[in-house]
Amino acid sequence: MTQGTTIPARYAAIITAAGRGTRAGDGPPKQWRDLAGLSVLARSIAAFSAFPRVVVTLAPEDMPRGIADLSGPVTLVAGGASRSDSVRAALESLEGSGVTHVLIHDGARPLVPAGVIAGVVAALRDGAPAAAPALPVSDALWRAEGGRVTAAASRDGLFRAQTPQGFALDAILAAHRAHPQGAADDVELALAAGLPVTVTPGDENNLKLTYPPDFARAERILAGRIPGERNPGDAMDIRLGNGYDVHAFTEGDHVWLCGVRIAHDKALLGHSDADVGMHALTDAIYGALAQGDIGRHFPPSDPEWKGAESHIFLRHAAGLARDMGYRISNVDVTLVCERPKIGPHAPAMTERLAEITGIAPDRISVKATTSERLGFTGREEGIAAIATATLIRE
User: Fold this and answer.
1) Are residues 169 and 316 in the same domain?
2) Where is this region: 2-C-methyl-D-erythritol 2,4-cyclodiphosphate synthase (predicted)?
3) 188 marked as binding residue
């Protein structure tokens, strides 16, 4: 994870790697196998490099190898006979450390995208006691017996579970202690303990390496992440997001619009600098990513953002898009107001938005319209903005 995502200081990651992976075929345990020059486990750890603490569970016999091979600030904990035993040991090691939330990840999922991790973190920061990524089931489902289909099953409401699964530390540790018999995953234990679990977006590339063919697929995915390369037959992912914002006028002598200071006989009222155009564009990018809005990432209740310059929000949204593997193809911002006149300032606004988002100016449109003296904008009570952003992952 890189510049688009900030991990709170009291969050930790737990990576489970104490299993033997017997279904993966001949060779060492799957977490130690080479995957394009790095071990599977090393890649899983690297995905959580932004976390202040990373705890890795290993089989006791693997401890010497872990000490020798694993780089970075990781804490090694001896795992148990089952996955649940290993996770509980890791959770116990964090009790009393000041950590408040944990993300628990399968060490055999080395290709987890940064956006999947960011989605879980965002849900926890929004107050969810538990959150986990998943993909809706799209295939038809059957029941079978003796090699024959016996019935069709409904796929409505069914999801394929992924990791990392995030929790408040005290809640998931209590759930593990209350159910020492374990479960298939930590969400199952959370549900047994009565915790509501928020579903966040998963990703098809976040596969769990289980069988021998999975390693070949992982190699192909890694090859496809090289800029300019794409696997034949892979679909291009195009996303469109819209944003809308309004700010009322108040006393003042200037307004900020799309990053440009414009002299005016009024100012715009807002918790930050009230740049209505930049706010709408930021929400358009978040919307295309299915990552909520500015308020999710920069709560207005937080005094830290009082009077903040809006380029902070837009840079974060653009960085999050990059972290999730998207490039911003083009953006379009329309300002709705009677005054000030936007046309003379549109080129400067375009250049400023290009600088912040990192895209070419010829991919940015800034324009204005009036509301023909109708409504609050027509009465010059405030300014509205509408924005659209197109994101592409190839």
Assistant:
1) no
2) 239-394
3) no
